[in-house]
Amino acid sequence: LEGIAAIARMAPPDALVGGGTMLTPGDVDAVHAAGGRLVVAPNCNVAVIAQARQRGMFAAPGVATPTEAFAALEAGASVLKLFPAEMIGLDGLTAMVSVLPTGTGLWPVGGITPERLMPWVKAGATGYLLKQTPPAELVIR
């Protein structure tokens, strides 16, 4: 939380600074109090999404199925984090793109390397977390 606060103070106004692995509404409140505006979760917890939206934050919950994707969108998700991307695969991403509302942001996370990126983008990914050492880099198109 101290790191989020320090980065939020130094970041440009349009930067999305926040926290990952947000599992409870209390986690959301703590990141918000530290100056964060981004909530990333490994799962689709509608209470976490709702708390983030109530605080005016950008919510990126993890989803692995269309059912979770629609629940997350109904709860107010800003984008959908497809997690774990290795399990969902390119065919899963293509299937989700075909049923989700046009313009839904889809960020595959897990196993996305620079060498494997282009097929994900062609299948409909709008953002992604590149797996590199170090550091990981979140890219939004």
Give short descriptive properties of this protein.
single chain; 141 residues; alpha/beta; three-stranded parallel sheet; 6 helices
Polypeptide structure, described:
The chain is α/β, with parallel strands linked by helices. It is 42% helix and 17% strand. It contains six helices and eight strands. It has helices spanning 2-10, 25-33, 46-54, 66-75, 85-99, 117-123; strands spanning 18-19, 38-40, 58-60, 62-63, 80-82, 106-108, 127-130, 137-140. A three-stranded parallel beta sheet has the order 1-2-3, covered by helices on one side. Helix 2 (25-33) runs parallel beside helix 3. The longest helix has 15 residues, at 85-99. The protein starts with a helix and ends with a strand. The model has no long low-confidence stretch (mean pLDDT 91).
* Largest sheet entry: 3 strands, parallel
What is the string of helix and strand elements? HEHEHEEHEHEHEE
Span between N and C termini?
27 Å
Overall mean pLDDT stands at 91
Strand arrangement within the widest β-sheet reads 1-2-3
Secondary structure tally: strands: 8
**pLDDT < 50 runs, ≥5 residues:** none
**Range of strand content:** 15-25%
List the topology elements.
Elements lengths: L1 H9 L7 E2 L5 H9 L4 E3 L5 H9 L3 E3 L1 E2 L2 H10 L4 E3 L2 H15 L6 E3 L8 H7 L3 E4 L6 E4 L1
Parallel strand pairs: 1-2, 2-3, 4-5, 5-6
Antiparallel strand pairs: 7-8
Helix pairs in contact: 2-3
Short note summarizing the structure:
The protein is of the alpha/beta class and 141 residues long. It is built from six helices and eight strands.
